[in-house]
Amino acid sequence: MRIASLLPSATEIVCALGLADQLVGVSHECDYPADVVAGVPILTRSAVPAGLSSAEVDATVSDLLRRGESLYMVEEETLAALNPDLLITQELCDVCAVSYDEVCCIAQRLPSQPKVVSLTPPDLNGIFADIATIAAATGVLERGQALIAELHARLDRVAAQVNKHPRPRVFLLEWLDPPFAAGHWAPEMVALAGGQEVLGKAGEKSFRVTWEQVIDAAPEVILIAPCGYSQAAAEREWATLPKPAGWETIPAVQQGRVHALDANSYCSRPAPRVVDGIEQLAVRLHQRGEEQGTINVQQIA
């Protein structure tokens, strides 16, 4: 089979199912596994320039949407030359990838007439369902079932540990400027890691909040996890932002429990590595094992 993935999460799932050798094209954001995607033709590009701050990204995206312009473009000639049998896209997020409708229109024009599979995971169960969907579409259903069972087993091990501890109040910041509370699977990640998300809503879209709301929620832990940012990028931008009045009154700040996450790898993408993220969060939220060298988060305030 010849698989074209227009999503980083789909690329990760395809590879986790042992189908890396069948990937013929990926999106411009697909970066994992690095050794797999290196040299694979890139099929998309973004209208949003690289290197913008979170505030500039927000303004640019809002302006493009207001004008009715696409945020992403497909390299249709490249895609056609690859003759894909399967084209994987999404319908979950209007600003995350090429729109589903556009992908379907392009697929109809391709000589290979590929099957289009759309992923729309609103929550963690949706991520597992997407793994099963891709496994079924590629003829490796048993591999998909085995992968899902393995991920569930890891979550069970986390639950057995965190259920022994009190649940700290947590705020996961999904965008920096303007601030957004987390949605979809991210609040579930916090809950499964043994925390209590104070603003974000599982299974729903992320939403804008005020710093007054954050202060009033009095989180004991703040997780800086802007969508698509690496840990280092989150740290850099967070350091440049002025902190709101009353910031020092938040319990998380007083206790030195404001942490940056590698959201791009372990939180933003609905792929198997969200379970890695839950495991890492469980350690961080319960302040255990920092000496183990397995934590991929960094205290920043």
Description:
With 301 residues, the protein is α/β, with parallel strands linked by helices. It folds into two domains: 3-146, 3-Layer(aba) Sandwich (Rossmann fold), CATH 3.40.50.1980; 166-299, Rossmann fold (3-Layer(aba) Sandwich). Helices cover 41% and strands 17% of the residues. It contains 13 helices and 15 strands. The chain has helices at residues 8-16, 34-37, 54-66, 76-82, 100-109, 124-137, 141-162, 186-192, 211-217, 231-240, 251-254, 263-266, 273-285; strands at residues 3-5, 23-25, 44-46, 72-74, 86-90, 115-119, 169-175, 180-181, 183-184, 196-197, 201-202, 207-208, 221-224, 258-261, 297-299. A hairpin with a 4-residue loop joins strand 7 and strand 8 (180-181). The longest helix is centred in the middle third of the chain and has 22 residues, at 141-162. The protein is globular and about 60 Å long.
Number of helical elements: 13
Mean pLDDT: 91
- The CATH architecture name of the largest domain reads 3-Layer(aba) Sandwich
**What does the overall shape look like?**
globular
Please name the fourth-level CATH homologous superfamily of the largest domain.
Nitrogenase molybdenum iron protein domain
Structural class: alpha/beta
Beta-strand share of residues:
15-25%
Number of domains: 2
Rg over C-alpha atoms, rounded to the nearest angstrom:
20 Å
Low-confidence stretches: 288-301
Order of helices and strands: EHEHEHEHEHEHHEEEHEEEHEHHEHHE
Q: What is the fold-level CATH name, i.e. the topology of the largest domain?
A: Rossmann fold
CATH top level of the largest domain is Alpha Beta
> Main beta sheet, described?
7 strands, mixed
C-alpha termini separation: 49 Å
Number-wise, the strands total: 15
The percent of residues in helical segments reads: 40-55%
